[in-house]
Design goal:
single chain, alpha+beta, five-stranded mixed sheet, 25% strand
């Protein structure tokens, strides 16, 4: 049902249509400003690896996007970034396929032994999905909290 390929400039407008609200866009990246624009995606790609789109094989439509960042070859660790799925394809296996592809690329193309990701506590769908997928919380960051207390 799905296939994947590297991000192409022609995909950017479609990806920009995925976030439906400012809050949803903040889940993709706190650096993005709503509404998402192709330039924002391109500017964030520096230092990112394996920018990947997922396609619906029936329509050849771009349905999801992600990349890898913070890769540390010495530690064998990287971060899954900018994960977003088209609203039309949520709950239809596109996110699972995207994670499978990205974890495979991290392992086989970059040598990652461990992948991490950040998920906002208000993103209940994301938290449930990542937990089912086997990710475990390892840190909690409270915005605006002073660590010197």
């Amino acid at each position: 049902m799905y296939s994947h390929r590297s991000l192409d400039h022609k995909d950017l407008e479609t990806i920009c249509s995925f976030p439906q609200t400012e809050e949803e866009l903040s889940y993709v990246s706190p650096k993005f400003v709503y509404p998402l624009t192709p330039d924002q995606i391109l500017n964030l790609l520096e230092g990112r690896f394996e920018p990947t789109v997922i396609l619906d094989n029936r329509t050849n439509e771009v349905v999801a996007y992600a990349n890898i960042y913070g890769y540390d070859a010495e530690e064998g660790c990287g971060w899954l970034g900018n994960v977003i799925v088209s609203p039309k394809y949520r709950g239809q296996g596109a996110a699972r396929y995207l994670l499978d592809v990205m974890l495979d690329k991290a392992k086989n193309n970059l040598g990652c032994k461990m992948m991490q990701l950040a998920c906002h506590n208000t993103n209940s769908r994301g938290l449930a999905f990542y937990t089912k997928y086997g990710f475990k919380p390892f840190d909690i960051e409270i915005p605006g909290a002073d660590a010197k207390h």
